[in-house]
Amino acid sequence: MDLRKLRIDEPVLGTFSEERDEYERDYARLIQSPAFRRLQGKSQVFGAGSGDYYRTRLTHSLEVSQIAREVARRLGKQYAFLSKKEHPGLILDPAVVEIAALAHDLGHPPFGHKGEEVLNQLLMEHHGLKYEGNAQNFRILMFLEKRAGSGSGLDLTAASLLAINKYPYSLDEPSKLKGLYASEWQEIEHLRDLWQMPLGCSTLEAQLMDLCDDIAYSTHDIEDGIRAGKIQMNRTFFEDSRLIDNLVQEIVDDQGNMEVGWDQVDIPAMVKQVLTDYLQQWEELYVQYDHESSRTRREMKARWVSTFAGKIGIIDDPAKGWKKVSFIENGKQDLELLRTMEILKKLAWVTLIKDFRVQRLQKRSEIMIKRLWDSFKVPEYGRLILPPDWVASYEQHKQNWSWPRFVADYISGMTDAYAEKVYAELYASKSGSIYEMD
Predict the structure, then answer these.
(1) Is residue 321 situated within a structural domain?
(2) Does pLDDT of 320 surpass 70?
(3) Tens of pLDDT along 21-58?
(4) Integer Cα distance of 274 and 425 in angstroms
(5) pTM for the complete prediction?
(6) How far apart, in whole angstroms, are the C-alpha atoms of residue 387 and residue 212?
(7) Which residue range is the domain that position 395 belongs to?
(8) Cα 241 to the chain's mean position, in Å?
(9) Would you say residue 109 lies in a domain?
(10) Which of 329, 354, 379 is the last residue of a domain?
């Protein structure tokens, strides 16, 4: 039995084309799913619909998949041990990595990180339940999405599921902020046991997808920020002490990124140096491209993606007795480049997410989600204004699907525009028609 191509539940045997590879089947199921299509209407940084140029969750996922697949192909030629396939978790199949990248953001609710924050707050305060984007991802893949003949989500292969699983933990474990809900973790843990995965370790495919996601954030979001005028390419902006102080504070407060060795460097000095080098590179390219900002912006993005992607390699991780996908320089982990990427990620965060206009939009989205929640939270009234197919699904699964989780599932599946539409129908003086199709 091929443990990588194992499916948890494949009740409709013999109904598929024998000519298609198992991962091709995964790919088709994913991209034809409503959850994947809805990514086009979910915010990346700027609200979906802010403009034709800015990225959505869909374009972000496509860009991550392109980077990840190309790197996987290169690493497959570079590292001989990968071809031996000695362990199902120590394989880098470009098709699997692409699937993982395309699926990694399905669980994000409308309005970006603010939506995730508000839903978690509502569930925790009133019901002691957690909401987390990565966990919701697996709830969608393994339960909420439906395909013909299956009642268990998209029923992807074990390789694809474990490649999407960046955080191999249960959210029920103490102090875990990211992971899986207990219902899905039970089945993922079973797959991990079959594969004999070391405790707390991710497959190489999951690690590569995660790193390429960070590369996209640190390059593409900055490109969007420059395009929007939130990141101003001049010395006054880049040498502003408030910007530098905010970046340093974000780094210090982010306890999840201490392993890149911040204790080994003078953080303010490194932040200043990275900003100085970034602006100098822009100024040189700006002259080279005849002072055309759009060409300069695209070239900056392309060069940084190439720099990061070209440094990805695989090393031993003695602490875990496993392998690690990271930036590599002379056979060792390149902590300097990892820290540089973190600074660029924080630059995007501080200048975009923390911008007061973006904060106003996030406050507006917080109000909408809370009022939608209030409308649906009482079952006797909520079921009257929810789509009949959702109510029917709840009735079918209510023995293991609480009403609060059901409401969170419904709201989190909305696109930005659909959330605004439903909000307007409930609270605006007039919106739409009863003959509109949901």
Answers:
(1) yes
(2) yes
(3) 999 999 999 999 999 999 998 876 554 445 455 678 89
(4) 48
(5) 0.92
(6) 37
(7) 358-427
(8) 31
(9) yes
(10) 354
